[in-house]
């Protein structure tokens, strides 16, 4: 009745597909099995053990989004699936939190085309027929190294990056003010400064600094539009320090816009 298959993609990760019924179309219930890393110091319970307290369930990914699979099993427990007129699929994908590699691999290697799909991301129990995009960008600033005893003989890339960050944060505020999609819990595009690295010693002028950031655009925003906004935000830095800043995309999934 139910058929379950595992599909290996990259890095020894697996997708799982459970199916019931045959034919074209049908309904796909989809979710992902991975989570973001957890901060051990902020947990008062074992994140890898599901525990209940005060009517709430605690555990890594209970909402985003392992709980969805529990809901599916509970919903189907009393359903006579032999009476379904079209197939029913349950898909669990890997690497959603980073590269979407599991979903990408599945889309590229399967002929499955359901009529409808429900993706069980937490949306406060309100259906949302849209999805934010995801772009990971990096900005590299190249300065000029030198000894810290004579700062005027070098160009400190960290100081230039400080200037650039100010303009990026202004862009973040502008995105929040200009764009809205009320169906989302966070109804505006987000921009997160996630990782920065520069310099190699306290007594050397930093010659190179690199900042990685994450942008979650709203439906309808194009990649060209976002790149244009980022370039405009950094233009004052580029003009002031010509040849020092290089905005480049470090990694990017095709945004679902």
UniProtKB/TrEMBL annotation:
An MF annotation (GO) of this entry:
acetylornithine deacetylase activity
What EC number(s) has UniProt assigned to this enzyme? 3.5.1.16
What biological processes does GO assign it?
L-arginine biosynthetic process
Alphabetic keyword roster: Amino-acid biosynthesis, Arginine biosynthesis, Cobalt, Cytoplasm, Hydrolase, Metal-binding, Zinc
**What is the required cofactor set for this protein?**
Zn(2+)
Q: Among the entry's GO cellular component annotations, what is one?
A: cytoplasm
InterPro entries, A to Z: AcOrn-deacetyl (IPR010169), ArgE/DapE_CS (IPR001261), Bact_exopeptidase_dim_dom (IPR036264), Peptidase_M20_dimer (IPR011650), Peptidase_M20A (IPR050072), Peptidase_M28 (IPR007484)
Question: Locate the Peptidase M28 domain: which residues?
Answer: 25-108
* Localisation per UniProt entry: Cytoplasm
Gene3D superfamilies for this protein = 3.30.70.360, Zn peptidases
Domain (Peptidase M20 dimerisation) ranges: 130-239
Give the family per the record.
Belongs to the peptidase M20A family. ArgE subfamily.
Q: What is this protein called?
A: Acetylornithine deacetylase
The species this protein was found in: Escherichia coli
């Amino acid at each position: 009745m139910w058929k379950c298959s595992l599909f290996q993609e990259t890095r020894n990760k697996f997708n799982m597909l459970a199916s019931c019924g045959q034919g074209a179309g049908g309904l796909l219930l989809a979710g992902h099995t991975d989570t973001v890393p957890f901060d051990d110091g902020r947990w008062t319970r074992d994140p890898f053990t599901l525990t209940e307290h005060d009517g709430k369930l605690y555990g890594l990914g209970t909402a985003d989004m392992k709980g969805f699979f529990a809901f599916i099993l509970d919903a189907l427990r009393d359903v006579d699936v032999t009476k379904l007129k079209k197939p029913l699929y349950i898909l669990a994908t890997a690497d959603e939190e980073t590269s979407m590699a599991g979903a990408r691999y599945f889309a590229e290697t399967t002929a499955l085309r359901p009529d409808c799909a429900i993706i069980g991301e937490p949306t406060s129990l309100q259906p949302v027929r849209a999805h934010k995009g995801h772009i990971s960008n990096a900005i590299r600033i190249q300065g000029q190294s030198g000894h810290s005893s004579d700062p005027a003989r070098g160009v400190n890339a960290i100081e230039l990056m400080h200037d650039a960050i100010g303009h990026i944060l202004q862009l973040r505020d502008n995105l929040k003010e200009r764009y809205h999609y009320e169906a989302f819990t966070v109804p505006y595009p987000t921009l997160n400064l996630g990782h920065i690295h520069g310099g190699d010693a306290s007594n050397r002028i930093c010659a190179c600094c690199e900042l990685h950031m994450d942008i979650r655009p709203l439906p309808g925003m194009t990649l060209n539009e976002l790149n244009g906004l980022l370039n405009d935000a950094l233009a004052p830095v580029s003009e002031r320090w010509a040849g020092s800043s290089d905005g480049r995309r470090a990694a990017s999934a095709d945004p679902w816009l």
